[in-house]
Amino acid sequence: MFHRDKNIVAVSFGEQLLHAACFKYVAGTLKVAALGRESLEGVDASVWADKLGGVLSSMGVRKARSCCVIPSNIVTTKNIEIPSLDREEIRSIIDLQAGRHTPYSREEILIGYISIGVFQRNYTKVLLIIANREVIKSRLTACEQAGLYVEKVLFAPECCAIFYARLLNLTPADSPVGIIDLGHAATDFLIGHNNTVVTCRSIPVGMKELSGGGASAMSRLTDEIGKSLESYHNEDINSLPSRYIVTADSAVARDLQSALKTRLNAEVDIQSFHQMMSPDESGPAGQAFSEEDSFASLTAAASLLNDPQVQVDLMPVEIRNQRSIEEQGRQVILSGIFAMIFLVLICGMFFTKIYFRNIYLDKIKRHYVLNQYVVVQLDKIAHRTRIIKDYLADRMVALDVMKELYRLIPEEMYLQNIFLDETGQVNIQGISESMSTVFDVVKALEDSELFKNVKTRSTTAKKDRGKDAAAFDIVFRLESAPDAPADEEDPAAEKE
Q1: HEC profile for the chain?
Q2: Bridge partner residues of 250 (DSSP)
Q3: Scanning 50, 90, 250, 465, which has its CA 20 to 30 A from the CA of 440?
Q4: In whole angstroms, what is the distance from residue 405 CA to residue 441 CA?
Q5: How many angstroms separate the CA atoms of 167 and 1, rounded?
Q6: What's the N-to-C CA distance of the chain in angstroms?
């Protein structure tokens, strides 16, 4: 998809002229913003960048997506048949056979191909395109030095064939169409079918020669087009075109239209490319469309920059790899930047939350400082009250013990000592007239709801006031007191 907020620049370096065209989208329609042209006759490739920079400056181009358009006269094309239908296998076969069609070594050339269609069920017809690597790289270097980042290196005839197929609403079922693109110094003759180019040829007769050469130049051009059709027919590439399109609309083009109708005995129409794309009046004017030149290939390439139907991209592999690495590096840097921004945002969120919570806490402290003082004072009073209550409760326990003992101890028994410690253990010592009375008291203490763990520590017979009596020592605990540990139990009581 296009970035519609940017301009699109198409550049083509021919043998004699440099062409540049700037396009932009206006309300969803691609319009011509500016055109530029510069002579390259007698100019070394080292100054191409300066020439292109001057053209871009005159066109008012500052930032734009760009593509480099390769004309047919600087590449070698060949129609061949590949015994395969698999795309990857076709690519492998072409890589192996490409060296047979050019005097250059495999390392010196760039290869592209266009799949034309299936032939005899198991064969694929392709248009093989071979370009010199250094020729392509020299153009890319000039564009880079002029400040253009070339996204693709497109083949001019393929772009023209797709462009006109869409303009004319052609379908794969329609007959092939011949396209005649009249340039300044040469004419591109190509045949389009199935929304692509089937064959192409660059004829060294252009508008310059047609304007000055008169009938002889016109006859030469029509003869060359006729020879191209004969070669096309002899190679059995496809059926002959039933219709021909001339891409320029001028006096010379109309003369050529009449000559071709007579020579080819077929329908010849004029479909000027600039009639299909109106200029953008809001942009810089640059150079106007000229009747002595053609920007059809640049117009077609700009409109098809990111179109998936375009099969040929002659961008060198090493440049693609380099750009891929650079793009990955930029992605890593951007990822790192985004990660740092995300981390800063997260930290900022936490610090902000802590800051506002501290502010809220300080507000609560200031608001409740008086209540806190009152609560502290009340807590002190409650503590003192609990102490007094515990003291009074302890005193009542002693009285309750005395009351319960008074109720349980019979008249035949009197107590000599009563001990009540802080752990809730009670120890009574006394004299009983008989041993059975002691046992009855022990049972009564066990049945009491106030006492537990009643044990007889000792019982001894003795004389009391001249009578036989029994001295006893009984220990027990209050029901509300915790049980004593096992090692604190009286051994004597266990033995008893």
Answers
A1: CCCCCCEEEEEEECCCEEEEEEEEEECCEEEEEEEEEEECCCCCHHHHHHHHHHHHHHHCCCCEEEEEEECHHHEEEEEEEECCCCHHHHHHHHHHHHHHHCCCCHHHEEEEEEEEEEECCCEEEEEEEEEEHHHHHHHHHHHHHCCCCEEEEEEHHHHHHHHHHHHCCCCCCCCCEEEEEECCCCEEEEEEECCEEEEEEEECCCHHHHHHHCHHHHHHHHHHHHHHHHHHHHCCCCCCCCEEEECCCCHHHHHHHHHHHHHHCCEEEECCHHHHCCECCCCCCECCCCCCCCCHHHHHHHHCCCCCCCCCCCCCHHHHHHHHHHHHHHHHHHHHHHHHHHHHHHHHHHHHHHHHHHHHHHHHHHHHHHHHHHHHHHHHHHHHHHHHHHHHHHHHHHHHHHHHHHHHCCCCEEEEEEEECCCCEEEEEEEECCHHHHHHHHHHHHHCCCEEEEEEEEEEEEEECCEEEEEEEEEEEECCCCCCCHHHCCHHHHHC
A2: none
A3: 465
A4: 10
A5: 19
A6: 106
Its pTM stands at 0.67
244 strand-pairing partners:
178, 268
Looking from the CA of 463 toward its CB, the CA atoms found within 13 Å total: 2
Residue with tokens 């198991």: 122
Q: Measured between alpha carbons, how far is 311 from 331 in angstroms, rounded to an integer?
A: 27
pLDDT in tens, 334-377: 999 999 999 999 999 999 999 999 999 888 888 888 787 888 88
